[in-house]
Write a structure and sequence with these properties.
There is one protein chain. By secondary structure, the chain is an all-alpha fold. The chain has one domain. It has 14 helices and four strands. Helix 2 runs antiparallel to helix 9 (259-285) and helix 7 runs antiparallel to helix 9 (259-285). The longest helix has 27 residues, at 259-285. The radius of gyration is 22 Å and the shape is globular. The two termini are 44 Å apart.
Length: 382
């Protein structure tokens, strides 16, 4: 029993108060600096941060939240999901419904219905669009829609003891099925075009620099809050049970714990985190469509965690920044080679960086400490 709940030592220094204070200070500084350089400096200034940079960084912060979610289920519980993209997209669609209602009569057809419904000759909103014009109800949907889907799916999957590659395959099948469903016009979600052309948020213009900066800062604050909550989870007894399930699920069962409850809880919580990320993503990017549910996107989420270092909380965030920063560059400079680069990055990380980029930093620090220790030890010198 003592070994079963032993506190993991890997990257233990990341959980010190000093490390987390530095991380929170860094994110707060980024938000403050971006605010000053974007809104207070003229566009022709050398230090001006453009609206495009703010939007791109905000998008990467949303991806970092998703990477945190996948780390909780894969890095700490050993559940490799290739379907987290559907939870992210559902959160985006849930909030996108509210944003579409905020357009009001300002659409191309000057109707109270969204343009795609007018084009398809719909006369009224379908029943599942009711109350989506209320902001509080939209926030509720952002949490409940991905959470309920994850709970139902996870309950039957975990109760059947589906795990490993089989679980990964059915999660990928789930996201592919939802993508095909949302591509259909009759579902009432805009078909292949999805939701776009947003006008307002809380009755305020959504495209102003002030609103974009507010969304950017809100995303950074949400990332910090979710990091702190996740840290509290993984360092608690609940988190140690999750780690034990990852390493030896049979021993956990023989010790009197039901893995179903723990796996289902963290799986549902992870899906809700993705829903929050999707809701923050949509107003900053300005569009949500079924392509966000593609299996390729979910695989890319797993790559973020693998590249950064899963099971560390901070590593996947780093991986999301590295991969999406490289994606932003390569898709503009060498668009035809981006997928080759992504595949190469994943192969190299798997072969030579099994603990990710963060693990490489830890090895380098350990090597420097060993050299310093040998230099200060007169016996070893002799």
């Amino acid at each position: 029993m003592p070994q079963l709940f032993a506190q993991p030592s890997l990257f233990s220094r990341l959980y010190s108060g000093k490390a987390w204070s530095m991380l929170a200070a860094a994110l707060a500084l980024i938000c403050l600096v971006f605010h000053m350089l974007n809104l207070l400096l003229p566009a022709d200034s050398l230090f001006h941060v453009s609206d495009y940079t703010v939007a791109l960084t905000g998008k990467i912060l949303c991806y970092a939240i998703v990477a945190l979610a996948i780390d909780l289920v894969w890095g700490y519980t050993g559940i490799l999901s290739l379907g987290h993209g559907v939870f992210f997209a559902l959160g985006g669609y849930a909030f996108g419904m509210y944003l579409m209602r905020q357009i009001g009569m300002d659409g191309s057809y000057h109707s109270s219905l969204p343009d795609f419904m007018v084009f398809l000759d719909w006369k009224t909103y379908p029943w599942y669009w009711q109350m989506t014009d209320h902001f509080w109800f939209a926030l509720l949907l952002v949490l409940l829609v991905p959470g309920v889907l994850a709970f139902v799916f996870g309950y039957f999957a975990f109760r059947s003891r589906i795990k490993g590659v089989y679980f990964s395959i059915i999660t990928q099948a789930m996201t592919y099925a939802f993508m095909l469903l949302f591509f259909r016009n009759e579902t009432g979600f805009g078909g292949n075009n999805g939701f776009t052309d947003f006008k307002r948020l809380l009755d305020m213009p959504i495209t102003t620099p002030q609103m974009r900066m507010a969304l950017f800062i809100l995303t950074g604050c949400m990332l910090i809050a979710l990091l702190l909550v996740s840290r509290a989870i993984v360092t608690s007894k609940f988190g140690r049970v999750l780690t034990a399930i990852r390493d030896a699920e049979s021993r956990v069962m023989f010790s009197g714990y039901n893995p179903l409850h723990y796996k289902l809880a963290i799986w549902t919580f992870s899906a809700m985190i993705c829903g929050i990320a999707g809701a923050l993503y949509v107003p900053q990017v300005g569009i949500i469509n079924p392509s966000e549910m593609s299996p390729g996107n979910s695989i890319e989420i797993a790559i973020w965690a693998a590249v950064g270092g899963r099971g560390t909380l901070i590593g996947p965030l780093l991986g999301a920044g590295i991969v999406n920063g490289a994606k932003s560059y390569f898709t503009q400079a060498f668009p035809e080679y981006w997928l080759y680069f992504l595949g190469l990055l994943f192969v190299l990380a798997t072969l030579y960086l099994p603990q990710g980029v963060l693990g490489l930093f830890e090895k380098l620090k350990a090597g420097r400490r060993a050299v310093k220790h040998s230099d200060n030890n007169p016996i070893e010198k002799a």
